[in-house]
Structure formats: structure tokens, C-alpha cells
Fold these 2 entries.
Entry 1:
Amino acid sequence: MKMLKYSFGLLASVLILFSSCRDFVEPNIPYTDFDTGAYLRTIARTSTTFNFFDLTNSKFALTLEAVDAEDGNTVETVEIYVRHRRLIPGVGLEFTPSSGDNLVKTLQKTDFAPNSESRFLRTSFEITALEAIQAVGLTPADIEGADVFEFRLVLNDRFGRSFTNTSVNNNVAGAPFYASPFQYNVSVICPSDLAGTYDFVHTSDYCGDATITGQTTWTAIASAPGSYSVDDAAFGLWGECYGDPWEGTVRISDACGKLTMSGTDTYGDSYSMTVVSANADELVFDWINTWGEYGTVTVKSNAGKPWPAGLR
């Protein structure tokens, strides 16, 4: 009987608590009068890099979905602005134009259309690299690898409101469901594909006039895109002069066509290189290390894989 009274009392208390909570959490709020906004959901990032070696055919392209209380029908225009930035070592970011963004394209309401995948209106657009470069007051000759173009979108609706990257928090900007950053960074990249095994001819008078032929293997380093480990950075010279195989850790790096050599051999001597000439068939460079060993190497391209234009 004591237990029964206790259970009844506990049940009565819970019912009173829930009754009180209900009165508290359901006030008479006019939900229909709440204001709503709009955002642009990123459906596809078709192209978000510019190829340094092919700026003429590079583009920034997206597919966007307008999300609002009317399935995208409140959108009037979407303005797309751009500015250019470059990281200057020891200085920091340098922006062009320094005064702010430049308008490069405006999407109209008529650019948004129904689609078969959702109820919201969608649009696809592209901006060429040349259009972006011109908009910020530069020329293709001014562009360098690792430059970044910042594209910022501004959605204007028929109520006179504007929404942009400062209107959203991190959840809306980056969460997969919303995917609405309103800002997209397009990097100028320099694709590099120098990995392979190549025939070479090496001339050096370090230990007497010698012409050495052989093969050199360049292996891509996964952790350092554009860098390649070299199996023999002396290109047969140690075998010719000392009868010893070369040992060490040396890499050749390709920074938008500018080739450099770094690393050391088993004795701690460091290596460097200077490109003499380059064409589709032959890459010619001088190499030297801090011990004083040196030579001139002509590396032949492989069938169907010419050396890229612009190596220097």
C-alpha cells in the first residue's frame, strides 16, 4: 500500500510537470508572421580552378539552387563579384583591386529555371579566367601560379533585401545540406606530370671528359604535389668516377614550370640545377653539388609524352 501511494504521487507530479511545460512552450506565437530569408545551395562545383598553362580555356562554373519561402521565386538578381589575391612571402596577402570587389557577372531572375530533382529553381553559369582577370584590372601576363580569385555572390530579392557571405553562419555556409558559402576561392594551379623513366646523356669533365648514357627515374612524391624523387642525382657520375652507386634523397620540384633541385646525398652534400634549354623532345640542365661535382644532362622525352611547354 505504501508503494502504491508513492507511485500514484509520482505519477501525479509528472502529469502536473508536463501540463506546466505545455503551457510554457506553446504560447500564442504568430508563426505565419515570421520573416524568412533566402540562400543559394551549391549543387555542383563544375570548375573551381584556373590552369596556369591554359588560362584561355579555364573557367569558374557552378550550378546553384535558390532556396526561399517561394521555392526560389523571390530572387531578382545574383551579382557576382571578384577580386584577386597573392601571398607575398614575408609580407602577407596582396589584393587586387585593393579597393574591393569588382562586378564580373549578374544573373537575372530568368536565368533560374525548374528542374526535375527538386522544387527549387536552379541556374548554371560560368565565368572564364580571362573575364575574371580583366575584371580585376590585370592581364594574363600578370598572373602567377598559386594566385587566388575570390568570387563573392550577392542574392537580391524582390523585397529589396540582399544576402551574401556575411549573412550566413558556418553551418549554412559549410554544412552539406545548405552548402551556401556565397564565396568561392578559385586557385590558379599548375598541373605537373613529370613522373617517369627517361633516357639521358650526361657530359662532364669533373673526372675527365666523360659522356655517360643511362636512364633516370623521377617518382612523384604524394605528400608534395609537383615534386619528384630522383633515383640518381649525379646521373651516373659516381659510377664513372668512383665505381660506386649514388645514394641520397634528392628531388626535382616543378613550380609552374620552374624546375629546382634540392636534397642531399649520403655524404650530406646538397644539390641544385639550372635549366639550359627545353623543348618537347629534350630537357637540358646543369647540376652541381656542394662537393663540387657537376655536369650537363640532356633528358629525352618519352614517346607520346613530350616535355611540357614553359619549363625553365
Entry 2:
Amino acid sequence: MLSDTSIELRTAKPSLLMRTIRWLMAKRKPVFPHTAREFEAHMARRDLPTDAPMPDKFADKFTVERWEAADQMVVTLHPKAGPGAWHMIYFHGGGFILPMFKEHWPLVAAMVERLGLSVTVPLYEVVPESSHELQDDLADEVFAKLAGSHDPSRIILNGDSAGGHMALSLALRLARAGGPQPGKLALFAPWLDLTMADEAIRAVEPHDIMLKIGTLRSCGEMFAGDRDPGSAECSPLYSSKEDLALLPPTRIWTGRHDLFIVDSRTFTGKLRDAGIDAKLYEYEGAPHVFMAITPTKESKDTVKLLGDFLAA
């Protein structure tokens, strides 16, 4: 159950920089259309999107490896001093339908620079042009390859938004399979229920400048394909207590102006009830995937807490 030790409010009000960036974000064209009808019309006519290229300067700052798994591209960044003691697999967000954003690269770089770990980023093919099966195949092959050359207990799975869903889903598949397991799980504003069923989410919706319930439901149906979006397979919020009890220690970070805050709280409670070392960190006024706004106090605090989690 939730307790005073399982959820922590890290900032009682947003920093000035966060407020400024939120205001600017609200003036821009939204990443996702704000209605299901607009979303579906956009998806019907869109050109296949491509990943934001990794900044050229990364080649000077990090040791970069480019490789393939499940016929899809993967990038690994190591500190210049050599591979980190911890190796992170990071799944970027984008509703399963959008590729790597340019904002994801600075977040990945910050984790390598500040924490001294290696980070592998699967550049998965997106739906509906591809399929959830191919996304899962890539995740499975990336973990298997890294676990063959790195102590699995020193591998941490991480991801933001839909990428948090992918990291959690991979952890659940590995737990059920009973083979090598990751040592820890970190989730940045994870998408836990594709159906957005909890009515409490409606109270948050006016404050979320990026996400809207109807659009997310439509996107979730697109990702689910012929599966039930409300099943545990598609929505890990509904995983059984027995499956959740197999997960590694878990930390979650979510802003309070993020639709996913409601399910993050519920999921943290379920993890604790299943006996998992789990904690949720909340940030007042912070938008969806606020940690990607790397200059902010809130993002820096997230990376610090992640380092504390790895050191524990």
C-alpha cells in the first residue's frame, strides 16, 4: 500500500525555468493532436517519421557504438574512460508511434556524464508502420546481448512515457521467463494503462499541456492492434500481484501536471503491496517527461536520485 515512505514530493512548486519552458511549450504546436479525431486524421496521412540524429559532438564526448538487433538500429554510449559499472537500456517515449526526439539525446548524455554509466538506446521501428511484436523482439534481443557480456544484475532498464511501458514490459517478460534478470528498474513518467480508465485522470487533464485522454486512448488502440488495450499484456498497471512480485527494485518519476501521475501512484502502491522496493518521486507543476528539460532543477534532481538509486 502507499505510505509516507513510498511517495515523495520533491518540489513544492515548479522552478522559474520550468515555468518559463512550460509557457513556451504551451504556445507551440502540440506533439500529439489534442483530440482523437485529429490524431487519427494525422496518422492516416503522415509520412514515416525518422529518428532525430545523435548530435555530432557526442563522438567527441563519448565512445559510441552503433549496432543492430532484430534488424533494427541500436546506439550505445560509453564514458570516454571506459564502459560504466552499470549499463542502462533506455527506451525513448513517443506513444509507440514517434521515433527518437532531439530532446531525448541530451537526457541520455546527462545520465552518461553525471552517473558514469553506459547507456544503450534501441531505435525501434514505430507503429502502425511496424508492430509491437517487432518492438518487443528488439527489446528482448538487446537485453540478451548485453546480459551475455555484462553482469545482468548491473543492468538497469529505463524509459520515458511509452518507453517506460517498454522497459516495464521487458522486465515482466524476463521475470516470467526466469532467466537472467536486470538489477533495477527506473521509469520516467511511464504510460501504464493504455485505456486511461481511472476517472481521477480527468482532474489532471486541464493542466497537461502535452497529453489528452482521447488521443491517448486512440494511440493505445493503434499500438494494441488485435489485443485488448485493457489487458495486462498491453497495460502493465493490471499485471498480477504474482508477476509484480518478481520485479527488481523500482523507482518512478512523474510530474503533477502529467496525466500519468494518477496511474503512477496506483502502480507504486501495487508494487509495494507485492513486496517490491518501490518509490515514486513527484514534482509539482512539472509537465510530461519533464526530466528531458535537462537545464532545470527538476531534471537535475531526477538524475541525482537515479544516481543514488544505483549506488544503494
